[in-house]
């Protein structure tokens, strides 16, 4: 399937559309984001009590226990990927003014698409690991040895070692790779979720589409960082003012005020992130094919 190359300014529009989409369709998208947040937090209900128990016993988690917790988190991460696809379908339905309900995020499981999406998640993980390995090897492998020394030093309560040669070159390459990976993931997930592409076809579309749109991805990342810094400053000021006022009335009121504020920020971040992914995919790979698709089954 052909992928399109967009102009640099489209990166700013991806961000603005991503921010707009949640406020344009608040009930399905913020509701769906709440479900996603709840599901993403489920592994913590298991891992955090185990970690706290080990800490309260005064011993670090064993290697076996750490591996089991990591494996559990990884398994849960794969099982959540179909819900990400369902949320993209929810965004697509809302933007095309079709019926969109919160329960629609579970449609990939209902429609038998979950295994294909989990396969895409495994493939994307392999692509990510391969990219990191290539960067580490290309910069001489010093950053890997340095990282292992840092971990060993933390366990022994020692100062971290000096930065290795090629450290900043590796950081620059990681940033470029992260930028490409962002576009690649959005396109590949959109292709499987919305265009019903095969896993390998979606991987090819994601890789080529991200390369073709490196400049708008850079513009999007730059504007996002600047906007995020400004938003953090405003959010901290608002949170501090509200906390101060609430504390004057009652210390418990501080939690009553701040918790909804943080939850609202989290839901907004989820809806904006998937809104950006959707509009990025639609500009690069959507169009007539996506419009001709039958409407997703939203129950």
UniProtKB/TrEMBL annotation:
The answer, when asked if Transmembrane helix is one of the entry's keywords, is: yes
Per the UniProt entry, what species is this protein from, by scientific name?
A: Rhodanobacter hydrolyticus
Name of the protein described by the UniProt record: DUF4013 domain-containing protein
Look up keyword Transmembrane helix and say if it applies. yes
Please list every transmembrane segment annotated in the UniProt record, as residue ranges.
Answer: 29-52, 64-88, 125-147, 167-187, 217-246, 252-274
Keywords of this entry = Membrane, Transmembrane, Transmembrane helix
């Amino acid at each position: 399937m052909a992928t399109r190359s967009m102009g640099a300014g489209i990166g700013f529009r991806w961000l603005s559309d991503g921010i707009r989409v949640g406020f344009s369709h608040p009930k399905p998208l913020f509701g769906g984001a709440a479900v996603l947040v709840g599901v993403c937090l489920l592994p913590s209900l298991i891992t955090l009590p185990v970690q706290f128990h080990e800490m309260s016993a005064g011993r670090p988690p064993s290697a076996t226990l750490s591996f089991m917790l990591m494996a559990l988190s990884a398994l849960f991460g794969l099982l959540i990927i179909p819900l990400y696809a369902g949320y993209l379908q929810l965004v697509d339905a809302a933007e095309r003014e079709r019926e969109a309900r919160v329960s629609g995020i579970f449609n990939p499981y209902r429609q038998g698409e979950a295994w294909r999406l989990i396969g895409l998640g495994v493939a994307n993980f392999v692509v990510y690991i391969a990219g990191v390995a290539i960067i580490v090897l290309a910069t001489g492998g010093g950053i890997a040895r340095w990282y292992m020394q840092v971990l060993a030093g933390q366990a022994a309560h020692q100062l971290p070692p000096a930065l290795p040669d090629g450290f900043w070159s590796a950081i620059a390459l990681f940033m470029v790779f992260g930028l490409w990976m962002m576009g690649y993931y959005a396109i590949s997930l959109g292709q499987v979720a919305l265009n019903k592409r095969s896993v390998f076809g979606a991987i090819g579309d994601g890789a080529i589409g991200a390369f073709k749109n490196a400049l708008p991805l850079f513009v999007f990342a730059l504007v996002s960082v600047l906007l995020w810094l400004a938003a953090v400053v405003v959010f901290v000021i608002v949170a501090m003012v509200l906390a101060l006022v609430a504390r004057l009335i009652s210390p418990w009121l501080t939690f009553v005020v701040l918790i909804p504020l943080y939850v609202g920020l989290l839901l907004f971040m989820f809806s904006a992130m998937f809104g950006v992914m959707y509009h990025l995919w639609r500009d690069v790979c959507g169009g007539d094919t996506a419009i001709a698709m039958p409407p997703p089954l939203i129950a």
